[in-house]
Specification:
about 350 residues, mainly beta, five-stranded antiparallel sheet, Methylamine Dehydrogenase, Chain H
Length: about 350
């Protein structure tokens, strides 16, 4: 699909600009609400997390609304200041599913399966100020080119934001949302991740109508052409969930009967040997947080930390519905069914 004005246009009745393929809306977001620092632990069901050096950003379904549901109509956004512990919240963002953040901006995305398509109340792609959670830019999603459910996959760094949706991946400028490049994907985008230390961009794709295998690929961050592609698991079951670290990548996927975690080299996506570990379920996800590798299993109610070299389980804890982990050398954070918390250091991890 050629990049055209119709590919990415603003919602809320704004007119598209032919010079930028998208025009800018400066409509204010819902007023951010300050909360006591301790309240981050009781926000509600955390559905997605993003981390910068200054803050942790969380999408969550508030307690007492629709319950533990990803993409709920009541989905809110919270900002936890990593220095002061102060919390801002704003929303709701109906159907919001994914999030990415830089020091300047927060991006949240939805999908094509929110109640009905198209739905004027559904979240497409929204940009917020990373400090105030205001000054939003709303962008209507392009055609996913699929009849199956498709979710926006996001990654951001500095002044660039990458969006994978349906069968295409886009590079946008963070300042305006204008399309700088786009490229076709072999299947339906299931995950997207950027590793700033190596400048590597990875895409996980579910099987398409013309293929039977899911894939993971490295893409050039500037023009988005494919560099390396490898077959992996998760076809027709949501596709692979890709998480990079500095020298390797980790992939989690459902198999239908169980779940599986793979360890691959960043250089050529070749499989690395892994130690024996407990069986995972179809609810498995993997996260790289600083030098730590975490595996969450929502169906088994477990959170494990793995040896980053061998993949062996170093420590395990019970955690209802699993969780989401983000972190760096300064701290690791856990988003769970009960809210957001600092993940206490464990010497085994």
């Amino acid at each position: 699909m050629a990049v055209a004005v119709a590919a990415l246009v603003l919602a809320s009745g704004c007119q598209a600009s032919s010079s930028q393929n998208v025009s800018v809306s400066t409509n204010a977001a819902p007023s951010p609400t300050p909360l006591p620092a301790a309240s981050a632990g009781s926000l509600g069901f955390i559905t997605a997390l993003a981390l910068t050096g200054q803050a942790v950003f969380a999408l969550y379904a508030p307690n007492g609304t629709e319950g533990q549901l990803r993409g709920a109509t009541s989905t809110m956004l919270a900002r936890l200041d990593r220095s002061s512990g102060a919390v801002l919240t704003t929303g709701p963002f109906s159907g919001a599913m994914t999030i990415a953040a830089t020091d300047s901006w927060v991006w949240i995305g939805g999908g094509n399966d929110y109640l009905a398509t198209p739905n004027p109340n559904a979240t497409g792609l929204i940009r917020l100020n990373a400090k105030t959670l205001s000054n939003q830019l709303s962008i209507r999603l392009p055609d996913a080119q699929v009849t199956a459910p498709a979710m926006v996959q996001l990654a951001a760094w500095d002044q660039r934001v990458w969006l994978a949706y349906g069968r295409r991946i886009y590079l946008l400028t963070a300042a305006t949302g204008a399309v700088l490049a786009s490229s076709h994907l072999p299947g339906i985008a299931s995950s997207l991740a950027y590793e700033p230390s190596t400048s590597k961009l990875y895409v996980g794709s579910d099987a398409g109508s013309n293929q039977t295998q899911a894939t993971v690929s490295e893409r050039d961050p500037a023009d988005l052409h494919g560099l390396v592609t490898a077959s992996t698991g998760g076809a027709d079951l949501g596709g692979p969930d890709v998480t990079p670290s500095q020298s390797d990548i980790w992939i989690a996927f459902a198999t239908g009967m169980l779940g599986q975690v793979e360890h691959r080299r960043a250089s050529d996506l070749a499989l690395e040997p892994m130690a024996n570990h407990p069986q995972f379920t179809n609810g498995v996800r993997v996260f790289a947080a600083g030098r730590q590798i975490w595996v969450s299993d929502s169906m088994a109610g477990k959170l494990d930390c793995l040896d980053p070299a061998s993949g062996a389980v170093r420590a395990s804890r019970d955690l209802v519905q699993g969780g989401i982990v983000v972190g760096d050398a300064a701290g690791v954070y856990l988003g769970a069914a009960t809210g957001l918390s600092v993940l206490a250091a464990d010497p085994r991890c």
